[in-house]
Amino acid sequence: MSTSPLLPENIAAIDLEAAESSTEQRSAWQESPFRISMARFLRHRLAVAGLLILAVLVVIAIFAPLISPYNPNAINLFLYQHPPEAAHWLGTDQEGRDVLSRLIFGARVSLTVGITSAVSAGLVGLVLGLLAGFLGGWIDSVVMRLTEMVLSFPALVVIILIVAIIGPSLTTIIIVIALTQWPTGCRIVRQSTRSLKERDFILTARASGSSDFRIMLRHILPSVLPPLTVVLTVLSAEAILLEAALSFLGLGVNVPESSWGGMMQAAQSLTTLSTQPWLWLPPGIAIAVAVLAINFVGDGLRDALDTRQQM
Amino acid sequence: MVAFVLRRLAIAVPVVLGILLIAFCFVHLLPGSPIQMLINPNDLSGPDSTKYIANLKAELGLSSPLPIQWLDWMGQLFKGNLGYSYQQQVPVTSLIGQRIGATALLTVTALLLALVIAVPVGVAAALKQRSWFDYAAVGISMLAISIPIFFLGLVAIYVFSLRLGWLPPGGRSTLGVTGSFSDAVRHLAMPACVLAAVLIGPYVRYVRQAMLEVLGMDYIRTAIAKGVPRTGVVFRHALRNALIPLTTVLAIQIPALLAGTLVIETVFAWPGLGLLVYDAISNRDYPIILAVVLLSAVLVVVFNLIADVVAAVLDPRIRL
Amino acid sequence: MGIVTSPAGGPAGGSEPLLSVRNLSVEFRTDGAPVQAVRDMSFDLYSGEILGLVGESGSGKSVSMSTLLRLNPSPPAKITGGSVWFMGADLLTVPERQLRRVRGQEIAMIFQDPTMSFNPVQTIGSQISEAMRVHDRGVSRRNARLRTIELLDLVGVPSPKVRYGQFPHEYSGGMRQRAMIAMALANKPKLLIADEPTTALDVTVQAQILETLQEIQRETNLSIILITHDMGIIAEVADRVLVMYAGKVVETAEVEPIFDAPLHPYTRGLLASLPRLDASVGDLPSIPGQPPNLNPPPAGCAFHPRCELSQHRERCRTELPDLVHADGRQHDVACHFFTELRVPAPVAGEER
């Protein structure tokens, strides 16, 4: 038989082969750990709901200028402290600014600070955790003592102190929050790394001559990412709450749009608290909803990735 | 056991040193030199002030290299000198002494309240897994860890104080009233409950999780197989083991508790250390802030140590 | 639906069985379809006999026995049928309070011992004493302690007085298992169910534990159900054998016939794959294929895809074989075509 691929009998053979290999590929993909985790995650209705809510919030944050009915910073003293009405669904504040618009733009600040600081904290924690867990020895001791030291300080108090001294710029706040949160991620990464270090596949890699750095990057890092993702949700939740508390106390970012926490500053006065609930209830609820959604996602991720970690 | 405690202490020492180092760095960020904050301002004015300042400069080494300054500064700390308030010109220690009682009352009450509620709820949720009670417990604890503390406080004031009028909106006592127990309780109720609510979230989750893990263990099956009644299994075997990680959890949550106390004291105008710090921030009164930060960090280390020792008492495996 | 077989009288001579299991069925509900872990199991146990329960993982041997004491938590396990007659009552339906009096006192169970069979934060001694005091409130702490020390000595734990106050992590695996046995025997039960008691132990320790069990059995006329996957242990210790496969009992006989003339193809396969010291072998034969997926269980004989005798005959595929008498000496087998087996059991290599 000629081996030219264009002959009819050979085409049939090729088709069969192609069909066989694609079935193999497909079934391999279907059973990949990633897909299993995805399936398990999607079965968690709350986690999926949380993800959807987050997606909506992110969309709101990104498209704020398009969605928002008014300019959040537009001061109009004639509209001073209107309760919710047709023209302003959530009323106006003491400077006549539309609350709904401020709420929408508030998402930008709160979510940006929250997610950025969480990611930064996560990165620092990842690097230090990997090094400490994998290399052990004095590096491990130093990193562990460092985490203990940082964790001994109540985060909010330290942030307040530093921000009070240096000044509340957006970058400062993000950095400071990250500085107080990295130990959480570091601990988890270190724990994972330590248990993975003893596994057979690492020993095999070592035996075949891979350098430490290579092993860390190619073998341990992918296995450490799932628990780290779960930790990232915890960190984001914590960061958003910290930023909110900071702004509420008057020490937060001083961008004009103000975050959700900042919107609630006015409620420190009992009269405002009592007579203008539309000023502080919506932002408070918004924070709670966002953090709740993140926590649901985190729980869903934790369950979805659990069995997979039995690698 | 003694060896364990000593070893644990030995680990704590470098951590405390590290904390002191970090605190010193903070001090350095502040305007003025570190030593300046520790000087009694009353001594700086008056007829002998110039000579006094000159002596101090020499003695405290205001121009020494940093490490020496650090040691001098620590020396002052150990002598009990935590600095002087910029605004009020009095030693910080006396201010702290005035306020610490109120904070302790609030914190301890909240902690006890949280434990008394969270442990039974967590245990019951684990025992009746997947029942409506379990789902409710998990749901409420999720909510509790997601709501900002200050928001919860504001809502509580709005509902119980402004709308229902049952409880006072803040402060520790009504003006002019002293020694009234019911008045004290009415003022303590809301701040303590809100602070407790913040703790209940994580506690319920941990207790439930620990209990679920323990209930799946082999020795529970052994206990049932040998005829131990259900209460015996739950209390003598399951709970006894599930509570061990709880001591660690309690210790880990202390920093969060302290931060929460600060916020609650601000919202409810509770005259404790938290409010002291908040006022100090507005007044740029750094020595106070610094002293409280330092104190809380050391407190946390102490509590972690205690928690580890308690865990070792409860779990013979740790003592090895 | 199975034919209930009641062997005529047990080896100890007594005509009433101590334990009678009839048509026991247990299913597990997991995320997907329910799994039939135990299917229509029936057998009798007489006092003083050691019954070996053999099967591979997933055969249902452990589940069936822990079901006797209702130790499997009710989701996900579910008893779907059958009865367990013991001392005049059906253990599957008695109220919990009554069952509690049976557990640890009339019927005791010991398990494989990975490290956690004892409560790690209590001393071994106090846990054994607990076994006594839970059933007899009148026993004083002091007496319970004395008896515990006696028991520890009986099972071969050295320095029992000192060991009383030690914690589980201070015992070795073998000693822990001995302590387990001591705890199980504390209330002089009539029946001991031992679920793979030696699987997690070294071979030498294994032998010691088995010897201890046999000694105790001889002295007290205790009945033992010994669950294992190790045919060697069965040969050593058992009086009668029950072979399980895919949730069903496929063969039961006294121990010698099982080894000399097994009638079920699965049992034959098991024995053929045993390595022998006295024969030289090329390749060890093994039973081809995998145990079946039990949700749902196959319609006919569960073993037929791997069975040489069956050769995929229609009857094997569609009809579930009942457990029937093969010969007068209580040898029962569940196979449609066992009569076709004329040849004695295949062994790897030559006969000695």
Number of DSSP-assigned strands of chain C: 12
- Listing every helix as H and every strand as E from the N terminus to the C terminus, the arrangement of chain C reads EEEHEEHEHHHHEHEHEEHHHEE
Shape of chain B: flat
Counting DSSP H or I runs of 4 or more residues, the number of helices of chain B is 12
Q: Please give the largest β-sheet of chain B.
A: none
Strands of the largest sheet of chain C, in order across it? 6-7-8-3-9-10-12-11
In DSSP terms, counting alpha (H) and pi (I) runs of 4 or more, how many helices of chain C? 11
Main sheet overview of chain C: 8 strands, mixed
Number of domains of chain C: 2
Q: Structural class of chain C, please?
A: alpha/beta
Largest interface: A-B, 43 and 48 residues
- Low-confidence sequence ranges of chain B: none
Helix content range of chain C: 25-40%
**How far apart are the first and last residues' alpha carbons of chain B, in Å?**
8 Å
Percentage of β-strand residues of chain B: under 5%
Q: Mean pLDDT of chain B, nearest integer?
A: 84
Q: What is the gyration radius of chain C calculated from CA atoms?
A: 21 Å
Oligomer: heterotrimer
CATH class of the largest domain in chain C: Alpha Beta
Q: Which secondary-structure class do the elements of chain B indicate?
A: mainly alpha
Characterization of this structure:
The complex is a heterotrimer of chains A (311), B (320) and C (352). Helix content of chain A is 75%, strand content 0%. With 311 residues, chain A is an all-alpha fold. The longest helix of chain A is centred in the middle third of the chain and has 37 residues, at 99-135. Chain B is mostly helical. Chain B has twelve helices and no strands. Chain B has helices at residues 2-29, 41-44, 49-60, 66-78, 92-127, 132-146, 149-163, 181-215, 218-225, 230-268, 273-282, 286-314. The relative contact order of chain B is 0.13. Helices cover 29% and strands 21% of the residues of chain C. Chain C has helices spanning 61-68, 96-102, 124-133, 141-154, 160-164, 173-185, 203-220, 231-237, 255-260, 265-272, 314-318; strands at 19-28, 35-45, 50-54, 77-86, 89-90, 107-110, 191-195, 223-228, 240-245, 248-254, 324-327, 331-333. The model of chain C is unreliable at 1-13 (pLDDT under 50). At the A-B interface, helix 6, helix 7, helix 10, helix 12 and helix 13 of A face helix 1, helix 6, helix 7, helix 10 and helix 11 of B.
